[in-house]
Amino acid sequence: MIIENYCIIVTILVSLSTVPECHACFASDLEAVHKIRTGSTFYLECRCDDPTSSRISLKWLDTHDKEIQPSGPGTKSNVYTEWWDEITYSLYITNISKSISGAYKCVTEYNGREYSRSYTLEAYDLPYFVNTDATQYVVSGSDALINCKARGETDPLISWHKDHDEPIEIIDANRYEISSQGLLIRNITDDDNGIYKCTASDVETGEEIDKNIVVKVITKPVINELVAIPDNVAYKGASVALDCSANGIPSPTFKWRKVLKDENIKTNITWVEVVNRIVFDSIAAEDRGIYECTASNTAGNVTEQIELKVLVPPVILEFDNITATEGSTVQIACKARGLPTPKINLLYLGEEPEDQRIVWSSNNTSEIETEFYLTFLQVNRSHEGSYICNATNDVESVYSEMFMTVYYKPYFNKPIENIWGWSGNPVNLTCDYESNPPSNISWRYQGTSISTEKQLEINRLIVENENKVPVEVEDTIQYGIYECTAENDYGEAKKIIVFLEGFAPPPVKNVTVLNVTATSATFNIDGPEEITGPPIVGFTSEYDVAENFDVTNIHINRTWSLDRPYRINKLRPNSSYFIRFAAVNDVGGGAWSDFIEFVTLEKSTPDEPIWDNNADFIQSGVLKWKETEDNGEPIEFYILKYCQVSNGTIQSDLCQIEILKLTTEYELSQLQFNKTYYFELIAQNSLGNSSVASAYIDIPAVETSSLTAGGIIGIAVVIVIICLVLLDLLVCAWKKQGVIATCAYKKKNNKRDDTMNSR
Fold first, then answer.
1. How many other CB atoms are there within 10 angstroms of residue 152's CB atom?
2. 136 shares its domain with 232
3. Which residues have a Cβ under 8 Å from the Cβ of 726 and sit 6 or more positions away?
4. Model pTM greater than 0.70?
5. How far apart are the C-alpha atoms of 357 and 379, rounded to whole Å?
6. Interval 266-277: pLDDT, tens
7. C-alpha distances out from residue 190 to 13, 138, 139, 224, Å
8. In the chain, how many domains are there?
């Protein structure tokens, strides 16, 4: 630019040299224009063309036509003049700016006329970049604009180069578009990384500036994995970390938050955030919920959520003992807490309550608490007892026990009771009652055949004996009606005890012979209908062969309880018998019935055997049958036949027959397990065979031990040795005795003796 100015000056000087000689320094006007870049230095000479003139008249005028006073270098003024020699007057501007732009004139005078040479200075600015960052980021896969804006005296012309290559529009015009805003790159890839040179050119001034822009391709974050370590289902108190792994260029930053249903609620941060994870040192129930991880960089952000579940073992919060009054309404409440919400069950430790007027209900008071209610609409004494509350969730099952006490007035199971007494039999009159709390007992006597004075005397004795009932007064049993009264704070109840004199039963009403064999007889006995005394407990009999009845009074006796068949055995075949019966109660045996005559049969073959198919016997590998009636001749043996059954068919060719003497059972161990067999059994005496008793029986598998006898003995020996060693250790630690103690202390004593000897 300086060279250009000098060229202009030289041109001016050459032109001045051609001016015709005159008496003034110059005798013509001149106008010239100079474009000067702001900030540069400007120098211009004004010379006298006729140095021989007797008077040299030169001066410089500024843009306001004011004379610029001459001064030298070092002046504070930005514009000054200086004489180089006697004919050269120069103008200096040290820093060109637009504020001092304008026409500067070099003026001379001749004969009262003024001549000027005018130099118009037009200052201009260099082009400059605005809002253009040296490093710019673009997102992979999208279209991006690389900003490069420039300003100048006119709109600069922008051109682009990449990595010192040819202009961008020449490389690929389809992917690039140049505008006044910058360079538009379509479908960004990793290849677009690099250094781009943006050039701004001012066509009028010819000025040109460059700027290198580093373009970095960035990628939007992608969350690869969002996991809980060790698991998103954790137990209360455990250490849990939530890890958010993401990729992106530049590397993303992470932000965590807990997602709430109501975002206005503030969350207490209970975790520690470390880079891309949050850590719960001791997780609590309140920490459960959904957590959101946001990975962000300059390309954008991405969000994912994970649910954290906290398992809390159940805790029973309320299950207290209660008291109730019979007839009132009472409620048992069991409240529990846990995660997941526990299920509650109530169990009564006793018999099923008689009164079913109860209501079961439950209610979840929160996400972690639940309540269970058992309401008795009308409580009674059967509801008293222990109750178990069981609270169960996926973590654990816990229980608690409570007791419900029911207060109720006295109660008698049998308000009226008959008691029998007789001479020589002591009787205790009891007043058994149920009540809560216990009741006070009082008695009152009311006789039926004694005087009023005697009744009063007995009642006085009852009171004096603290309500102990004297049923025998002056060696006389006092039969009659006794009244027991039980009373507590909730009411009273009375029990009537009718104390009666008891007698032995009357004669048996009727006896029928049901069955007679050669050696036995079975009877049906109809007891007496009306009994003045305790109930019948059995029957007794007296019998003998007919020819002995008139010879002796000593006959065979037999007694039966009520639940046994009335049968006599070991009779003599083909004989006539007489038998009579009497009923028996607690007083004693009643009167005998009339004699009944029956005749036993002739000797015969045995009766058909009867199987005793008890499942326990079969399982233990034993087949049993009942002892068969021999009918006068002893049974000599049993004939047992058995055949294997296959697909419901008896395998006749595989049948086996065995003779069994003096036994009523057979070992099944020799038969095949898990098979079905068909059995036939015949009893034989000297007169022949009985009819056949048959049965199909499944032979079960017998469980065998996996250990041999030697192995079992070995294990037993090892256990005994271990027990002895443990016992010896215990004795050694406790009293310093035993084998181990003896060895240990003996060794210690030997060492002590050696030390003493060495000394």
1. 21
2. yes
3. none
4. no
5. 8
6. 777 889 999 899
7. 61, 10, 10, 21
8. 6
